[in-house]
Cytochrome C and Quinol oxidase polypeptide I
Amino acid sequence: MWQFIQKCSVRQWFGIAVFNLLIVGCFGLLMRLKVIFPLAWANQKFLLHAHSHFAFGGWVSHALMIFIVMAICGLKANDVLPPRYRFIVVSNLLASYGMLISFTLQGYGLYAIIFSTLTILLSFTFAWFSCRDIGRSGLPKVIQYWLKAALFFLVFSSLGTFALVYLMVTKQLAPLNQLASVYFYLHFQYNGWFLFSCIGLLLYWLYQSTGKVICSKQLFWSFFACVVPAYFLSVLWWKAFPQWLYVVVVITVLVQLLIWTSLMRNTLRLRSQLLEKLNPTIRIIWYGVMLAVFLKFMLQAASVVPALSKLVYGYRPIVIAYLHLVLLVIVSLFLLGLAVQLQLLRFHNGVKIWLYIVVLGVLFNELILTVQGIGGLVRSYIPGANQLLVIASGMIVVGLVGVLSRQRDKKIPS
């Protein structure tokens, strides 16, 4: 086992990440089935905790760690990880599997809390080593800023978890306090760690492919400055919300929208140079991801209306649709596309078909969640929505199985 870990290539580590995404998909499918069938042996709340925690630790964070190490160490698909990162990645995987099992069996019990705490401590360790090595990497300064900021938000987001623990210990876990703590963690994971890592990795790939950096330091610092104020979008329902802070929030969402529009425009200007280097299938997927990010910022801009913000952030189906938009449509599809571009996923016509099934499943899932959420807001029941969600989840699972099953195809070059 230890010899396998020592010889495991970057491609194989990412293969484990895709397998973990498959597990996340299977748990999602199981939860959708439980809505339709009794399945008395499965606790829906426990499954939800296992699903969400493993999606963060076993899929997204694991994949981002692999990509960031590739970027700062200049690794290729068949290279092995440096020993210190190998230890962190293996430890994070073990802790993530521990969370998956313990949350499934007992929910928020002792073992689940222990494994969750371990993943947080390991994220601190990864951030420490990575920040040190980023400065030595030789990457352009702006790309270094994006990756360091992502690591900062990875650590900063843990304050939401610690606040939740404090509220539980001091018995101040009122619903609004709990929501504020959970949204703090989610905001700085989604809009900090996840988003900044993906943008940094996109800039890295563009730089490797064209020799150009499409983002200025001013754009970066403007975007960075928006992240903390944007958190208050999710807590506009606070009593006596200051008027000056509301103005800051409104300005923030508009600035974010302008910055992303500028980044999209700068990226599209390089399309003639990228035609030979960007896989046609991935080009389509990434165009969709770019539009999804634009939609995300548009939705944030719309939510500055206090009444709408209170309605949306307090209504579970809408929150679930938004979280899936970011985690599946934006982050997951971008990472799968990046893996193809960096040859961490072997790609040919057979893989393309299965990847399209994954993409269609993700988009179908988001469509049904959105329609279901809007239907709930207007108090209109959508017949067959739960069954359609099962089909969407099934498509994702089947597609991922197909992608993984074709990775050993001998016809595919390394």
About this structure: Residues 278-409 form one domain. The first helix runs from residue 2 to 7. The mean pLDDT is 89.
